[in-house]
Specification:
The complex is a heterodimer of chains A (180) and B (251). With 180 residues, chain A is mainly alpha-helical. Helix content of chain A is 64%, strand content 2%. Chain B is an alpha+beta fold. Chain B is built from eight helices and six strands. In chain B, strand 5 and strand 6 form a beta hairpin.
């Protein structure tokens, strides 16, 4: 994985631009989704209950907490601090959402995903599982890309040593330097 | 001589290399330190926002038994407003005054439920949910104010008959007061109750209880704890709803 060493470097403008775009899309989506739900906790909880995957006593706290966690991860990605951690959390959440929506679809439920507020039962003609999953797959792809190549330009990760730090690359890059 | 100078040159090189290494290490250390500071300065407020947000949501979702509630509100019924405490069967109506589907239910079946409540033919419990935003809370609070004067059913019907688009700002204090007066409420008492949001916390209790009771949408209507058949159309079909009531022993 020595490819990671020079990612902050000016040579990789394209990768850094893609990484910035991925951060803006995934981070922005999480931030907006969280902000739209954070002050409607009862609706958010109802949206989680509507999946019928968790017992009510678990679904409610998840519904109350999730919007705030989305805001936190969104901020991490947008500011670009611990990008890979944010990407891991963001991609992980998207994976869970994809599984949740897919399972609702498979079980023949008629619900809105409640991704950006709303949620709960809807008329069967108004379900939009395919587009909801497609959207989440795009967000997941952003997270996966950032895990692979976080870039660091235009991010707080580029501060300090100027190198990606506090993640897997740091030790590898030092080894590479010694080898040289 | 030649050997010696070679040796001292290589020593000098080593010393220079060591110095460079020390400088680089010091710089790296400094950089790491500044990064830790930046990380702390950025991560702490983010963590704080997340933790405070989650905590507030969790605390708010606890039913608070000390809040002001209208006298017909029943704790064991999740603070719903109870009509005919000893009658049977029990009918629970979960509605949001702003929800269009609730208006559809009311238009089709509201009169039947009202008749049962008024004539003691069933234990009817109204739960005013407030999913749809600030105006839902305002209207639910106002409905509790109307219950104080025994006019809940009239006011409830008035609000559904005159439902406006969600959170349009239509239900300001003056229009709401006028609505209360229209159903015969005491103007000053009602206005004060609406203005102060006297039962706003009670509205929260109902929302929290709705979450615990797994009420995921409005309207939700239960007869003896069992939801009427949504897929069959019992919410919008007057005859189907009547049959469901009859099956539960309503005469």
């Amino acid at each position: 994985m020595s490819v990671g060493v020079n990612f902050h470097a000016r040579h990789h403008l394209g990768v850094n631009l893609l990484a910035l775009l991925a951060r803006a899309i995934l981070g922005g989506a999480l931030l907006v989704a969280g902000a739209l739900k954070a002050f409607h906790p009862y609706q958010a909880a109802a949206a989680v209950r509507a999946y019928e995957l968790l017992p009510v006593s678990v679904a409610n706290p998840v519904g109350y907490a999730l919007p705030w966690i989305e805001i936190g991860v969104g901020l991490i990605l947008i500011l670009g601090l611990y990008i890979r951690l944010g990407a891991l959390l963001g991609a992980g959440m998207m994976l869970i959402f994809i599984i949740g929506v897919g399972s609702a679809w498979a079980r023949g439920l008629s619900i809105d995903c409640g991704c950006f507020g709303g949620g709960g039962a809807v008329d069967p003609s108004k379900t939009a599982y395919a587009s909801e999953i497609a959207r989440d797959v795009l967000f997941f792809a952003c997270g996966a890309f950032l895990l692979w190549r976080p870039g660091t330009r235009w991010s707080l990760d580029s501060l300090g040593s100027g190198r990606i730090t506090l993640d897997l690359y740091e030790e590898e890059s030092e080894t590479d330097e010694k080898e040289r | 001589m030649a050997e010696e100078s070679k040796e001292s040159r290589s020593q000098a090189r080593l010393a220079a290399a060591a110095e460079r290494k020390a400088l680089a290490e010091a710089a790296a250390k400094k950089a790491r330190k500044s990064r830790v500071l930046v990380s702390l300065a950025v991560i702490s407020p983010i963590l704080l926002v997340v933790i405070v947000g989650v905590s507030i949501s969790l605390v708010k979702s606890k039913v608070d038994s000390t809040v002001a509630a209208p006298s017909v509100a029943s704790k064991v019924d999740g603070y719903g407003l109870v009509f005919n405490d000893t009658a049977k069967p029990q009918i629970d109506v979960w509605e949001d005054f702003q929800c269009p589907a609730c208006k559809t239910f009311e238009d089709a079946n509201g009169a039947q439920v009202r008749e049962l409540a008024q004539n003691g033919k069933a234990r009817v419990v109204y739960h005013a949910l407030s999913f749809l935003g600030a105006e839902s809370v305002i209207l639910a609070n106002a409905s509790a104010c109307s219950a104080d004067e025994g006019k809940f059913l009239d006011f409830h019907d008035y609000l559904f008959k005159n439902q406006k688009p969600e959170n349009s700002g239509y239900w300001g204090l003056s229009r709401l007061t006028a609505a209360g007066v229209a159903v015969g409420l005491n103007q000053s008492t009602f206005e004060a109750c609406v203005k102060s949001g006297k039962y706003a916390k009670w509205v929260e209790n109902i929302a929290a209880d709705g979450a615990k009771s797994n009420v995921n949408q409005t309207p939700t209507v239960l007869i003896n704890g069992k939801e009427i058949d949504r897929n069959a159309g019992a919410y919008i079909d007057t005859a189907l709803f009547k049959k469901a009531l009859a099956d539960a022993g309503v005469k």
